[in-house]
Amino acid sequence: MSLESGLWTIYDLQLPLVEIDFSTYLLKEGYISQEDIENFNKAKALVRESYYLNRSNEDQIIEKLKEALSLLESIKPKKPFPPEMKIRFEELKRAIKEVLEKRDQGSS
Description:
By secondary structure, the protein is mainly alpha-helical. Helices cover 81% and strands 0% of the residues. The chain contains 4 helices and no strands. Helix 1 packs antiparallel against helix 2, helix 1 (3-29) runs antiparallel to helix 4 (83-107) and helix 2 (34-52) packs antiparallel against helix 3. The longest helix has 27 residues, at 3-29. The relative contact order is 0.18. The mean pLDDT is 89.
């Protein structure tokens, strides 16, 4: 998966689904805290920034994705996520990791 297609998948396909889960379901049901929502929103902003960066700034893109992944990893639900939410959330993190791993393999 290229950097561009990976970013597209993350930004256009996966991030919106997880955002809907977080905003409409999890906070109301008490699965996550307001701090977790803020971390998710910061991660979302970093992914958006990396998506719109000029592709020649690959190092900046990677740094923003690493920071976004770190923020997503910091989210710890109070109760286990429902199965479908857990799948979407884990897929989002996995997609970011894949982009980072491909980049690391390509620069070796």
